[in-house]
Amino acid sequence: MAIPVLLVSGFLGAGKTTLINHLLTQPHGRRLAAVVNDFGAINIDAELLSARADGVVALQNGCICCSLQGDLLRTLGLLLRQDPVPEGIIIETSGVSDPAEIVRSLMDPVIWREAALDAVLCLADARALADRPALLQDPLCQSQLRAADIIVLNKVDEVSAEELAALRPRLDAARPGCTILEAVQGAVPPELFFTGDPWRGSIPAAPSRFSTPRFETMSWTSDAPLSLPRFQAAVSRLAPRLVRAKGILQFAGREGQPMLFQMVGQRATFSPAPPPSPDAAPVRLVLIAENGRLRPEATTALLESCRA
């Protein structure tokens, strides 16, 4: 199974390093590595993170979306050859990076087999946006938002309720349909990332709550393969209500070829999955949404209609 990669972008001072520190220090039990890019010759972010991850690699004095792109790919190769191999990799871009180029590099089929892009986060500084509304018109800021699967509106404790209420529709207009998480000190729900293999335990009959109260999850399995066109149509209907989805799927006419399905934000991907264990159902799917949006009965009925 490919190692999941989380790409963290955002404008200068938005709180990227603080968010990564939060993820690295949570009690999830995963071995995480971090790749940190600072545009200057001294990489302060790497020093701040060095005690928090199994491996912190600093890429400095350049931008990983252009001059350091080859260094980034070589660094990923080194991390993949570590023993033990990290169970997740976080890449922090500099505040002047356009993540679109990095996303294109990570989507290369050769890289994807070993290190699959899990999600793209873009941090937005609530205080800075409230003070300087023109920031959302900055071409770099717009590029960062367009590449995001999830927008983290950080430092919401530094703005009033009225300012916050005005910011959300502006971000939604800049990146229509994107999930927006509000955060203080970069504290995002770790359950949304590096989900690993979530299908080894029992399957809940109803949505269960995360330790972070805002989100819930439900699982669905099928002993029969799915119709690919019907599943694609179902996902299109479910996508506006989901934060993310992940599953091991088999489709009619392609039995024996399990596929890993991942969806985060508005981006969905398929890639080959390893053979399932003998007692595993051919189709195993996990959905994550904000509380109250899963509608388990309707969602289950929709997924049941996808059976071949």
Automatic annotation (TrEMBL):
Keywords on record? Chaperone, Hydrolase, Nucleotide-binding
Cited Gene3D superfamilies: CobW-like, C-terminal domain, P-loop containing nucleotide triphosphate hydrolases
> What CDD domains does the record point to?
CobW-like
Q: Which domain of life is it from?
A: Bacteria
Q: Which Pfam families match?
A: cobW, CobW_C
Query: Is this entry keyworded Membrane?
Result: no
Q: Where is the CobW C-terminal domain?
A: 215-307
Per its record, the protein catalyses:
GTP + H2O = GDP + phosphate + H(+)
Quote the SMART domains the UniProt record gives: CobW_C
Matching SUPFAM superfamilies, A to Z?
Answer: Hypothetical protein YjiA, C-terminal domain (SSF90002), P-loop containing nucleoside triphosphate hydrolases (SSF52540)
Q: What does this protein's UniProt record list under function? A: Zinc chaperone that directly transfers zinc cofactor to target proteins, thereby activating them. Zinc is transferred from the CXCC motif in the GTPase domain to the zinc binding site in target proteins in a process requiring GTP hydrolysis.
Tell me its family: Belongs to the SIMIBI class G3E GTPase family. ZNG1 subfamily.
Protein name from the UniProt record: GTP-binding protein
